[in-house]
Amino acid sequence: MTIHYDPAIRTFHLKSKSSSYILQITKEGLPVHLYWGPQVERVSSTHPLVTIERCSFSPNVSAEDKTISRDTLPSEFPAYGNGDFREPAIELRLADGTVVSDFRYIEYKIASGKPQLEGLPATYAETDEEAETLELVLEDAKTGLRAILLYTAYADKDVITRSVRIEHHGSERVVLTRLLSASLDLHRTDLDFVHLSGTWTRERHVYKRALVPGLHRVDSKRGASSHQHNPFFALSSKDATEEHGEVYGFSLVYSGNFLAQAEVDQYGMTRAEIGINPFGFEWTLEPGSHFQSPEAVLVRSNEGFGGMSRTYHQLYRTRLCRGQFRDKTRPILINNWEATYFNFNAEKILDIARVGHELGIELFVLDDGWFGERDSDNSSLGDWVVDKKKLPEGLGKLGESLTALGMEFGLWFEPEMVSPNSNLYRKHPDWCLHVPGHARTEARQQLVLDLSRQDVQDYIVEAVSAVLDSAPITYVKWDMNRNMTEIGSALLPADRQGETAHRYILGLYEVLERIVTRFPHVLFESCSGGGGRFDPGMLYYMPQTWTSDDTDAVERLKIQYGTSMVYPASAMGAHVSAVPNHQVHRMSPLETRGHVAMSGNFGYELDLSKLPQEDRELIREQVALYKELRSLIQQGEFYRLLSPFEGTETAWMFVSEEKNEAFAAYFKVLAEPNPPLKRLRLKGLDPNKAYKISHTGEVVRGDELMHWGLPLPMLEGDYRSALFVLKEV
Ligand code: DGJ
Fold first, then answer.
1. Which of 516, 539, 558 is where one domain is finished?
2. What is the pLDDT of residue 207?
3. Strand 417-418 to strand 447-448: parallel, antiparallel, or no bridges (unpaired)?
4. Do both 315 and 342 map to the same domain?
């Protein structure tokens, strides 16, 4: 059994693979956090919660027991207004204008399996044996609101998922102003706060800072999970490395405004919280209604950051991604964006595709510019009708020509947007997010459609479906190139305007669900100016994401390394582009560009028809090699070896589940004068297996390769790389 209730001490013990997560209901009916760490057999102590009387500044729950104060209790669901002065998980505004709430335990239920979350993406269990779920029901007596805390423990993974459902059983309208998905108080502060932050073309760099008293937070107020901060943070022990030490991961399955934070309190506890950002959020609860929070995925590792990442990778790859492509190897693609931008016609597309096919590439992706009158980024979003000036015979014919060449056909869309210069906007000026009396702030000459509206959702589903029905399309790149401003909806009443941003995300999820269900044979890749919405919510609908608009090989090392903290290689689109690179103007060898891109879902994004024969030959080899390795890369276990954040070298590797095959990539960004001879210590191999190393033909045992290391070749010049393929003999 994964979840055990001990009625004598009212504790719930959630066991996941090698961890225990224990909480207790106090005699006052407050759910408190006791422990999350290496698995313990059972709680043998009869008084596991230790409390003492503190000063008068820590108020008591009741006069009978002065040792119990909300200010000092480790809480599982803190509320505001009656003694807990730290950051709450829930806040309300009542009809009488007050904001105090007091949720107390009512009952619990334990069931096998994992329920779906209404209208929201979430991880799942394929069988009832994989996981068990605890529902803890709390009630706020004054309002009649019930909070159902959902905890799922996976039996064979160190994963606990949490979410909260609010049900209104009372009689008066209540406004929810904050509802976080998970909140728990760890009994330690000797930790670092690790997060993934950056900007457009520099997403998900790894940052680490020591916890000190007070708040440590990353968030998004942009209406999307954002380039700036990923909906994730980790708390790691001071000695945590890639292989050793304790790491607690918190990841949110949500694509909108989020809050992720740790608060160190006065008595040596760290409150870790993640959920929808309360900033700008309100949700009116009428009697009889309910509200479901997104899911937080909590991962604990005793094997450092590498252990945490591999748990997330396996979970997100196999129990978050869905559909035909979850377990299928992904095609190698050629995308025309950096090759042509908006300036193309059918002949140009077919020229590139022909060379691509000749080199072994499998899918042609036609990017932005194929619809309306889109010769630049200042028009036509919303008008999803082919531009006959560029493609006189339409998408169907282009698709047929590509298919005849032996290439699959992929297409770009940006369905959530509208250009003011579009027929759609002229017809429906109120379909975008806007606030009367304020200018409609443009970004890239576009506005955001109001996906909280049913008519807008229906329009998008129909417009995208009509195009997908009109041509043999097997791949869609779903882009989104700006963040929200003037967040208001023409259809919502005044007292529900604060719901718009979350309703947008719910509307987006609804649209995606309808489209991916209708087109199960299409592989969807999400994108937001590269990685501006690289989050678990999107992965539930689309199993891969365009990692970054930065295609420079050197920049990609940091971006892909940081992204790999949470997301599997199968989720990361990675393409070889031209030099000088369009984002940073760097010249790097084609070999290195290939090696970096091969560490994700591989593709090219340059004008193949203009490449010299020598480059084409190298591309042919890269494509062939990737085909040989791709199931290992897309489904294998990932190990980080050298960090781009700690020097000018980077290395990582993939190992197959059976440990009979591995692939390591080493990158040396800057040349050194008279360099030392180095060895690269590998990870994840079977110490007792012997592996043949591709480039030398030597057979070396796994233990030697992991402890002593693989001798690295002398690489001359900047931006160099080497690959090693290992096969068990
Ligand atoms: C942003 C994407 O990240 C790019 O790859 C490209 O599709 C452009 N949008 C097209 O406008």
1. 558
2. 98
3. antiparallel
4. no
- Do 462 and 517 reside in the same domain of the chain? yes
Q: Active site includes 549?
A: yes
Tell me, yes or no, whether 294 and 342 share the same domain: no
- Check whether residue 260 and residue 385 sit in a common domain: no
- Whether the pLDDT of residue 1 is over 80: the answer is no
CATH of the domain at 670: 2.60.40.1180
Q: CA 705, CA 701: separation in Å to the nearest integer?
A: 6
C-beta 337 within 6 A of ligand 1: yes
The CATH number assigned to the domain holding 550 equals: 3.20.20.70
How far is Cα 9 from Cα 30, in angstroms, rounded to an integer? 13
Please give the single-letter amino acid code of residue 220: S
Catalytic residue among 71, 185, 479, 607: 479
Same domain? For 393 and 292 the reply is no
Domain boundary among 256, 286, 319: 319
Give the type of residue at 523. Answer: L
pLDDT per residue as tens digits for the range 50-67: 999 999 999 999 999 999
| Overall number of domains in the chain | 3
Mean pLDDT of the chain: 97
Q: Is 365 in the pocket of ligand 1 (CB under 6 A)?
A: no
Mean pLDDT of 621-650: 97
Both 240 and 107 in a single domain? Answer: yes
Mapping DSSP to helix (H, G, I), strand (E, B) and coil, where does residue 178 land? strand
Amino acid identity of 405?
L
Q: What are the two backbone dihedrals, phi and then psi, of residue 224, each rounded to the nearest 5 degrees?
A: -135, 165
Q: Give tens-digit pLDDT for 226-276.
A: 999 999 999 999 999 999 999 999 999 999 999 999 999 999 999 999 999
Distance (Å) of CA 36 to CA 80, 299, 352, 599, 606? 24, 10, 54, 34, 49
pLDDT value, residue 286: 98
Residue 49 CB-half CA count within 13 A = 24
- CATH number of the structural domain spanning residue 89: 2.70.98.60
* Ligand 1 pocket residue status of 367, Cβ below 6 Å: yes
The confidence score (pLDDT) of residue 695 equals 86
Same structural domain, 301 and 343: no
Q: Ligand 1 center to residue 364 CA distance, Å?
A: 15
d(CA 372, CA 355): 28
* CA 22 vs CA 37, 144, 303, 524: distances in Å: 9, 27, 21, 39
Cβ(203)–Cβ(534) below 8 Å: yes
Domain residues for 303? 3-319
